[in-house]
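I am still getting used to backbone structure tokens and would like to learn alongside you. Please make up or recall a protein chain and show it to me in full. Would you write everything just below, so we can both look at the same thing?
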Amino acid sequence: MVVASEIELAGSLPLAASSQSHDVVMRMGEVPQTLSNATISRPGWDADGDDFLVRAPGIGRFLLKRGEEVVFELEPGVPAQAGAAYLQGTVMGALLHQRGGIVLHASGIEADGGAILFAGASGEGKSTLVAALSTRGYPVVCDDVSHVSFDREGRPLVSSDARRLKLTDESIHATGLEMGRRKAVLANTDKSYVKPAKHWTGYDLPLRAVYLLRSAAVNEAVVARLPSALALNALRGNAHRPKIVLHTGQLPRYFEASVKILECAPVYVVDRGRDLSKLASTIDILEAHWRTCPWTARKRN
């Protein structure tokens, strides 16, 4: 998806000059406090048939129109940097929902022509893991917001988001990506946008597997396949902004999509400690696991 924005989106990779048209326009303008014809109204957002209004206290308001345009009005004194961070996170996820996509709270890599997604709660280290995998030769496909679509045969595909990673200083040091550091995500925070060692910006990739990251008191990472019922719940539970999915009546669509995903891509749980000194060991264990899968992922340089 190509986005044209009036403000710099520091977390996105700029598109090389071309004749390619844009899919979405993001521009500044006046945004109402509420939608006059809202069919759903929640504390942080309103929705009607065509529009979706996000209210972010301390940041501003964002009006998403038919999945094609985002008009935003920042609160007085809020820097464009803060608005851009919100546009690339919450607003982008809501926009993909509005465009009819299946959106998972996951980060992903490319391996042997397919996509591997890592899901999990905020703070579980999804971005750090894919950053480290990029230094092993696995291009990053997406970070934090994963867009899944389906081909004509109903097989799941993952789209590249062409975004930089958001990493803490500790994660940047642990992954050795200091040279890829770009601007800070927000002022007075230790998170920065980081260019991964490799980045996938090609065609949509078939989804190979989903891994649910989980913190546990273990010395080494443990990988186990989830039974179908638990896997189905894990996929639905890791929808991006699940309350939006719930209150906009999209649960049946996400259930159907989760069933289709499980027909092609198993779901595993990865229990591991949060000690970043174990990051390389965790990747070794994942690579050993991948060599037992029908698709074979090997370490690449």
